[in-house]
Amino acid sequence: MSSTAGSRIVVTGATGNVGTSVVRLLSEDPEVGSVLGLARRVPEWSPPKTEWAAVDLASDRADLGAHFAGADAVVHLAWAFQPTHDPATTWRTNVLGSLRVFDAVAAAGVPALVHASSVGAYSPGPKERAVDESWPTHGWPDAAYCREKAYLERALDIFERDHTGVRVVRMRPAFLFKRESASEQRRIFGGKYLPGPLARPDLLPFLPDVPGLRVQALHTDDAANAYRLAVRSEDARGPFNLAAEPPVDAELLGEMVGKRPVRLPRTAARSAVAAAWGLRLLPASPHLFDAVLRLPLMDCTRARAELGWRPVRTATEVLEEFLEGFQQGAGAATEPLRGRKVG
After folding, report:
1. What average pLDDT does the segment 327-340 reach?
2. What are phi and psi of 109, to 5 degrees?
3. Whole-model pTM?
4. Of 1, 36, 13, which is closest to residue 167 (Cα–Cα)?
């Protein structure tokens, strides 16, 4: 990456949880000359060296070529989690929109593409040991999120075969949280009937312990730093797992909130999620719940060795920050991250 005049980086999905952190870190990097953020709605927030353009990836009229011309790298983060009851709509944005991005990168001659994949792309795997990036990425087919992430992994296989001159990086982060994303993530996964101020540990009679509910978490800013390092590198390519320690399970959460975990059968927990989703009280689908119970733990050795990346915050610190923001209705000055205190 040229450091003389400063590089030009384009970021899609630049106003969301990950996008705001990536844009901020890139704008602070002295080797980055300018950042162009693409989003459906242009925000009032604008850090140094940053410009904005309104782009809807679901539209076949999106002129990505004009925005990508002259870019040194494209960081593709745009993603729609809802509506979970209409997977054709998310497919248009997430899959067809991503294919438009890939095609435009090739047509504009952009030398580097950094794509936001996910732990959700992985096939079911172990919870007692961590897997590296060679673990199969076929997702959990019933969950739209995993199905779409896995499909794009296959699309990138073909893209890399056909466009050997483009350096492609696939980031596979764990669940990403920061204080400012609390209101957005409550709306995406909990819905409007889950008020933040009422989500207090002291109101829980016990902490449900569902078999298989052992996952990894990461602060969004730590993930964004990995994206920044991948953009700056001239050699980094391929997939990188990103997660913080320790793994999150009922025992860890119980210690954090001072509640005793009580084993709850999978069938009972899933039935509750399915009923709430079927009544449209809960946006998160039971299919995603099934997938989460089967996600493998990830080994992040490659990111440490090849990117020089290490998370600054532990998973415990990440969740403590997020829960505080969740209760306070924290947000940021973009449309997806707008704060909202309910209840």
Report:
1. 87
2. 70, 30
3. 0.94
4. 1
